[in-house]
Amino acid sequence: MSNRVLVISVPSIARYTALWLLAMAVVLWTPWWREADWRVFGLLNKSNTPSWPQQWVIVDVPYEDADGDPTVFRREISDVLAAIRERQRPRMVILDVYFSSDPRGLDVLQGSLRQLRDARIPVFAAINPVDQSGNPTAQFMSSHAAPIYQQQLDGFGHTQFEFGGTTLKYEPFLALSSALAVPALAVVVAEQQFARPVTSENTSLIVNVGKPAVAVEHTVRAFRAVDGSINFRGAKGSVDLTGTNVLIGSLDKDRSPFANRSGPELLAWALIERTTTVDAAVAQRPLTSDWIMVALATVVPLASVLAFLRLRRLPRRQTLTLWVPALGAVVLGLTLVAMWVGLTYALGYLYPRVTLVAIGVMLAVALAWLSARQAALRSAVEMQVDGQREVLAPQYDFFISYSRTPDNARWVAKNVYEPLRSARDASGRPLRVFFDTEDIKAGASWYATLVTAINSSRHFVAVYSKDYFSKGFCRFEMERAAIRRVNQNDFIIPVLRETVQVPAEFDHIQFVDARDDRDFIDKVLAQANASPPAEADPLQR
């Protein structure tokens, strides 16, 4: 049989590359990897969590509607604003609510906002600058109640946050088009009410968020008393909002499914950080260039695949097959990612998009492993076909196929391999037995060696254990042996060690039962016209 060099064809490379790109595209368009990235950023970021000042209070207004009708919720907001204006007199009011163009209940809300402005209480509100697909749009105001935003508010801004772990990130100015960008609500409030503008309009703002219990301590709930009046109650009882900065929102309605934090809570932390200092000192700034992400997500997985191809050519124990070089390639890729993070960290930056790169490495190596395995199987099949054309001189009397679980491997070595190796043929010659742990050398091709050995054996002994047919290599060996059996009816000699469900394609082959018969080896030898050595005692084997 001619020697073969296992190669992965160009069409295979193109196919698996396309699969990798498709998988990466699916990952890219899911939100969870960004969540994981910001968790990594939060672990590495050295900036301090701001203290929560007593003058910042969240007012929770339960959200109620009927089939999308905003009337009830808008009336609740209106009554809360009226109660604040009449009895509480806060320093300012920030609504973590955006008002759609739906006219239902809008007139009552406009009246309450107008009265707040007449009372010289500044009012700010959020906008939703994205379309139905979640993409920023310059036409966002067409879906908003424009009269409120243009006439009844002191300012408005976006609340588009990314959050993971304890780290909050948002853009000070969110680009909606080449000519339009809207400021963040926290930036608008800090600049107008605290004279603290951002120092860089193009640098993402980072806030280390405190524990949820801190926000709970400074949250009050608006509820309607028996007489119909609106009251405010916190964890310690009734609350006076006079002179405070009131942030109104619905904690249950506006809640992140990933972080289990409410939108008002995240906005409160952003406002506190913005109004406490000007660009609070951050030890490392996020490095979020798309070009860097594309470069790393391409180069590092490619380097990992090349490492896999190189490692699989090194000498190794064949029982480990392709898993060891695959694991080594993944470790190498992740090490490269860690080195990049360490380098940027030393330079004063943090690269948070490690999740996407790490996923790219694992996907690339997994596909390279699959491609190499398929190529090995294809090469083995081709060798099998060639072996049917060629007349191979017998090299082995027996090929032992078995499940390589530790207990079964020990039993097979003691009760099958050693007795067969000690036996003789009709001329008195010791039998030649193929046993993988003895006959597959380091660096040899696993599949090619198995096929060659099966093709050059006189008989194939399959030791049926409970897991035999669930093992990939056992099925591979049995299928190769079945091809030989077409031309040699007694080629396969099954040995039943444990009760097992034999697949239909093999259940017609009579087995030797070794469960209760300690002389089963003699029956195997008899089928092969061989005999044990005269001094051997089968009961002692």
Report on the architecture of this protein:
The structure is a single chain. The protein has 541 residues and is of the alpha/beta class. The chain has three domains: 10-41 and 286-387, no CATH class; 47-282, no CATH class; 396-540, Rossmann fold, CATH 3.40.50.10140. Helices cover 43% and strands 15% of the residues. The strands form five sheets. It has an eight-stranded mixed sheet with strand order 4-3-2-13-1-10-11-12, with helices on both faces. A five-stranded parallel sheet has the order 17-16-18-19-20. The protein is elongated, with a radius of gyration of 36 Å. The two termini are 37 Å apart.
Number of extended strands: 20
N-end to C-end Cα span:
37 Å
* Average pLDDT for all residues: 82
Q: Tell me, what's the shape?
A: elongated
Strand order, sheet with most strands: 4-3-2-13-1-10-11-12
- What would you call the structural class? alpha/beta
Low-confidence stretches: 1-8, 316-320, 387-391, 535-541
Helix content: 40-55%
Strand percentage lies at 5-15%
How many distinct domains?
3
Q: How does the major sheet shape up?
A: 8 strands, mixed
User: If you compute it from the alpha carbons, what radius of gyration comes out, rounded to the nearest whole angstrom?
Assistant: 36 Å
- Continuous helix count: 16
